[in-house]
Write a structure and sequence with these properties.
Elements: H1 10-18, H2 44-56, H3 62-69, H4 73-86, H5 106-114, H6 124-135, H7 141-154
Helix pairs in contact: 2-3, 2-4, 6-7
Length: 155
């Protein structure tokens, strides 16, 4: 089994791009994941699914399963809730960081809306400068474009 840092391996690259590369595959001790063509400890979705299956089908304790699959007990419970809500898709890690234009809410968004001219292109660079002057916020012009587009779709 190649090392987890073998980024030249096509599967490792694919897992990394999908955000499903297990950061600690060496913590997975389940014998199925050792020397197997199918079970891959680098695939976090597969590891989490097998952990849930181990508890629900094989009646393993949560403590034993988390030890065997190299995760914490809180991770097990979060994984179970995600799986119960969304199935296998719930096992794919969520993207980290803010979701949506968190800087552009309330008065800042209203300020931008007031400076939009109907029927004319959004002057995002100019609006970014105005926001910086008025509110002291550095906002990327693309963020302004996205926020305005979202606002339009909601109307």
């Amino acid at each position: 089994m190649p090392a987890k840092s073998d980024s030249k391996h096509p599967k490792v690259r694919a897992l990394l791009e999908a955000g499903t590369l297990n950061p600690v595959p060496e913590k997975v001790h389940d014998p199925k994941f050792q020397d197997s063509e199918f079970f891959d400890p680098r695939d976090i979705v597969q590891v989490k699914y097998e952990m849930l299956r181990c508890v629900s089908v094989e009646n393993a304790s949560v403590a034993n399963a988390t030890e065997e699959y190299g995760v914490s007990r809180p991770t097990y419970y979060q994984t179970k809730v995600s799986f119960d809500e969304a199935g296998i898709a719930g096992l794919v890690p969520k993207k980290r960081g803010p979701r949506g234009p968190h800087k552009l809410q309330g008065p800042v968004l209203e300020f931008i809306q007031k400076h939009l001219v109907a029927g004319k292109p959004i002057r995002a660079r100019e609006l970014a400068k105005l926001v910086r002057q008025e509110f002291g916020l550095n906002v990327h012009p693309r963020t302004i474009e996205r926020a305005v587009a979202v606002k339009k779709t909601l109307e």
